[in-house]
Amino acid sequence: MISFSQSKLSKAEKGQQNLSEQEIEELAQIYDYPKSFFYQKSDSAPVSHLYFRRRLSLSAKVIDSFIANTRIYKKAIDELMDSVDMPEYDLGSYSTELNTPQEIAQKIRFILRINKGPVYNLTTLLEKHGILIAKIDFGTDKIDGLSSITDSGYKIIFLNSKMPNDRMRFSLAHELGHMLMHLDYPPKYSDETEREADDFASEFLMPQNEILPTLHSLTFQKLGDLKRYWLVSMRAIVRRAKNLGLIDDRQYRNLQIDFSRYGYTKKEPIVLPAELPSVVPDIIDLYKSELDYTDQDLMDTMYINRSDYQKWFGKPKLISLSLNCLSR
């Protein structure tokens, strides 16, 4: 327990009150963070730069804890990137007042040279175009993803590592939609942003002109075949069929009942392969192999404790992407 009031700590977190050297020392000991952590500038990303794919039944306390962890991660990333280069973000930003989410999705498929069919290894594809992907444990299953930007301007998408791979791919496309359409052009209403991000993700992953002829007379066997091809969940395909007018409300409801009956709402059959981020693991390797950093050196550089370092950056790299990350 801290010796000063929770009110004082809350005001300090919001920049409304300063803490004494002794109080900072106390916090450093309690939370196992280096004192230097508490002297950093706070993350300045505005609310419009934080978009969630989440469920409604989520407490403010859980959201605050989640946001605090992502802010720490973003600050660590900015420090980590200080000595390396990575691909520039080159996908642009788009106003939905000028283009529909579907039109924007078609433009991005063209930019990414996806002429037809499914999007393979979306994680690697986005990393090559300057978007950092962080798959971490959110501490809740009620938040799927978040898109944001660091103080140094790095675009970053957080994904809940506890999600099934099929849901994770849709969440990644959903957050990409936020990044393209809402970071620079935030709509007035949050419901509008979520609908637009879903519309973008659906068209990006399952283009209407290609998937439409295949959505008639849906059975679970057919849904399984479509899942294998489009690399999205069966439930996402059913929603796509409903939104395109191929099934009515009654058919949609009956399919949802069947998903629940078979236990497919939480875990569907046909496990899709995992897509593992490689930019940050590559950079960690570069620091160690070419700049002779130890784990402790990296923790000091990023102003984080051992627990967060091991949780976010300490796992062994399973795949590698050539990034041409060069020390400056």
Question: Can you walk me through this structure?
Answer:
This protein is α+β, with helices and mostly antiparallel strands. It folds into two domains: 1-31, no CATH class; 43-328, no CATH class. It is 48% helix and 7% strand. It has 14 helices and four strands. Strand 3 and strand 4 form a beta hairpin. Helix 4 crosses helix 7 and helix 6 packs across helix 7 (190-205). It is globular. 33% of the residues are buried. The model is unreliable at 316-328 (pLDDT under 50).
Q: Order of SSEs, N→C?
A: HHEHHHEEEHHHHHHHHH
The order of strands across the largest sheet is: 1-3-4-2
Number of helices: 14
Main sheet record: 4 strands, mixed
Radius of gyration: 21 Å
Strand content: 5-15%
Structural domain count: 2
Oligomer: single chain
- Helix content, binned percent: 40-55%
- Based on secondary structure, the structural category is alpha+beta
Mean pLDDT: 85
Shape designation: globular
Tally of strands: 4
What is this entry, summarized?
This protein is of the alpha+beta class and 328 residues long. The protein contains 14 helices and four strands.
List the helices and strands and how they pair.
Layout: H1 6-13, H2 21-31, E1 51-54, H3 60-80, H4 101-111, H5 122-128, E2 131-136, E3 143-149, E4 155-160, H6 165-181, H7 190-205, H8 208-211, H9 220-230, H10 234-243, H11 249-261, H12 279-290, H13 295-302, H14 306-312
Parallel strand pairs: 2-4
Antiparallel strand pairs: 1-3, 3-4
Helix pairs in contact: 4-7, 6-7, 10-11
Which tags fit this structure?
328 residues, globular, 7% strand, four-stranded mixed beta sheet, single chain, alpha+beta, 2 domains
